[in-house]
Amino acid sequence: MKKKFYIKTALVALLAATGLSSCLKDNAHYVDFAGATPLIELPSAANVGGSGGLFQSVALTASATPVPINLAVNLAAPKTLGSDVTVKLSVDAAALAAYNTANSTSYVLLPAAAYSSTLTTTIKAGTNLTNLVINVNTGSIDPSITTYALPLTITDGGGQQISNYKTVIYNVQVKNVYDGAYSATGSISFPPPTIGRSWTNRAKTLTTVNATTSVTEAGDLSPNGFFMYLKVNADNTVIVTPSPSSANQTIQNNGSCTYNPTTKTFTLNYKYVGGTGDRVISEVIALK
Questions:
Q1: Which CATH number among 3.30.379.10, 2.60.40.10, 3.30.70.920, 2.40.128.420 corresponds to the domain 180-287?
Q2: What is the DSSP letter of 34?
Q3: What is the pLDDT of residues 218-274, one digit of tens each?
Q4: Could you tell me the fold of the domain covering 35-175?
Q5: pLDDT tens-digit series, residues 108-166
Q6: Measured between alpha carbons, how far is 285 from 187 in angstroms, rounded to an integer?
């Protein structure tokens, strides 16, 4: 039985190899990519390099001037063309509605006043790639709103066929000027005041809550679930309060709390109430 099995296996392998050889030599089965139809596409929609895809989050720093988003538009072809190709896109509310339905989300269209673009770009003769520029007016966007989306779809390929990779949905969010990575040096004292601990160069991240407020770790207590809001007033004084999700809701100012916009540094004195009294924290949090 084993001998017959080996013979059958060898015959199958031989036939497969013969068939493969025949296919490689048979022009009827040869794919000539040189004759492929040119396609107009959005490379990022294809998730090239593991980034991008249909839905993409874009966090922009608040600015007094428009902040550009550059959307690459590509001519996918074995050869460049001898003439310009003008590509047009449009805001695709239907694509956003379909995404919300498929993912049980509730993103809403970015207000028209929050951005400007011709939604038209040109791939020059002899080239494959260009950028469509969308200028975002960050001042028109409330940083506390994280559900704005701008869905864009290629609607006119300038006479060329449009690829299936023709739509991107940008989730546009605005970061306040305090958002970023910081280094913290500080100490905490427990009753009696001589007992405590300190930290140096502790990594902290300030994340936007709204235009004037950020959330970050309180002291060195993120393992305990302690987080605080830092609200910067017009005079650069700072109000320290517990974040709504903090495990301790008594975090508060305890002396001078200020922000230096030149050095981008918070100098804070605050406290929270523990089981045996106030825990007093002094801390300097500087942008890296």
A1: 2.40.128.420
A2: G
A3: 999 999 999 999 999 999 999 999 999 999 999 999 999 999 999 999 999 999 999
A4: Immunoglobulin-like (2.60.40)
A5: 999 999 999 999 999 999 999 999 999 999 989 988 899 999 999 999 999 999 999 99
A6: 12
